[in-house]
Amino acid sequence: MISKTGIKYTAALAAVAILSTSAQAQLRQLEISGKSSLAGYGIKYDGGSDSAFKMDVDLDFKMQFSQDVSARIDLEVDNAQAGDSLNGLAGGSPNRFSIGVDQAYFKMNDFLFRNFALSLGKQDLNISLRDNGTYNVFGDPVGVVGTYSTRDLDLKAYFLKYNDDSDLSATSTNDQDEELFGITGEYWLNDDSLVLGYLNYASVSDSAAASFNAIQYGIGLDYFIGESLEVYGEIAGESLDASATGVGAGPDGSAFQLTLGGEYAFTDFDMKPTLGLEYYLQSGADGADSAWVAVGGAAGAAADTATLYAESNGIANAANDISFGTGSVVSYGDSAGTSGGYSVIRLNGALSPSKATKVGLGIHFLSGEDDGADDIGTEFDLYGSWKYSQDVSFKAGLFYFDADAADAEVTGLSVASALKF
């Protein structure tokens, strides 16, 4: 969440930039789109139960001033309420409400030379191997992104900066400055198959926590063999240089993430069944804070295949715990709080009874790495989706998590609805 000051500053910066660049230009086209979604969760565990809901509203304004000059402003409303056992599913906070500017930038195509675009302002950085996520670059960065594009190649170079003073108060002096320099390349082998690579240098200065520099890197391949078989793999890593003295002092560290998988589609059948197998590994921290990572958000981190409960409610979050009920905690960090890694073998199957519906089953075997528990547990997910109309869709999921490390069981339900306009 960004502060009110940050919202005003970002909006003003974008407005000044747009007006100063195109003071004589007239708005030729305005496109307004958005999405409203509401999700609810409920779980039952040994000795209790819990629930949560999360609402998101996104409103996007796309403006075209000329053939080569455009602008975009995205507004976002985020509201979440959750019991202590479902903080992760609600975004890490039991009670959260925020209104903010998600993006506010202008873009110039064919800037200085052909096929080169320059965008300035507050903007997301999308590094995605399978269209399954956005690389997690600090909260809401402001900066410059240059993109060179041809039919088969996309190259991006960027400098992004983020400052969070939302914790500043009479009793807190937490002021965090983060910077990211990097380059990303995407090369399309054909219409479907993609090679992705990136290299980033990040610098984080925090007045009340860790300060460090990090080199992040990753490479991946998503390849289709015929119309039925998709195979993919990705490795990402980080090398971290922590501060030697003062706040955030600690040893250097490193971490990595590996994804290998494949999916086969039975295209000759009317219900188009699919079967998927995936192995995902996120290493633990070799040194303090080193799983800050590229690892946690590298190219989406297989977001479309993650579990409905366990990974969403702890493993993929900074706390590195899955908690449910007083005293029932699955922790895969060591006694000093250093992040422990985990791995998971995923078996997924799905079919489409009609053009508007889809059902699936996922079985996930989760294990701890490094200092964590050897067996985190097994999760079974049954899910379905229904496209009510072109604009409205519904999703529901049932999950059962057998937490071996805590000798406990969790059953639950997740439901969601979305409106696109």
Structure, explained:
The chain is mainly beta. It folds into 2 domains: 1-39 and 54-103, no CATH class; 40-53 and 104-420, Beta Barrel (Maltoporin, Chain A). Helices cover 5% and strands 56% of the residues. It is built from 2 helices and 20 strands. It is globular. It starts with a helix and ends with a strand.
Features:
Maltoporin, Chain A, mainly beta, 20 strands, two-stranded antiparallel ribbon, 56% strand, disordered N terminus, 18-stranded antiparallel beta barrel, 2 helices
The portion of residues forming beta strands comes to: over 45%
State Rg. Answer: 22 Å
Q: At CATH's second level, what is the architecture of the largest domain?
A: Beta Barrel
Gross morphology is globular
Unreliable segments of 5+ consecutive residues: 1-22, 166-174, 245-249, 287-303, 315-339
Give the count of helical stretches: 2
Overall number of strands: 20
- Summing up helix and strand content along with how strands pair, one would put the structural category as mainly beta
Reported for the largest beta sheet, the result is: 18 strands, antiparallel, barrel
Helix content: under 10%
In total, how many domains does the architecture comprise?
A: 2
Can you tell me the CATH class of the largest domain? Mainly Beta
**Straight-line distance between termini:** 25 Å
Order of helices and strands: HEEEEEEEEEEEEEHEEEEEEE
Question: What's the rounded overall pLDDT mean?
Answer: 76
CATH topology of the largest domain: Maltoporin, Chain A
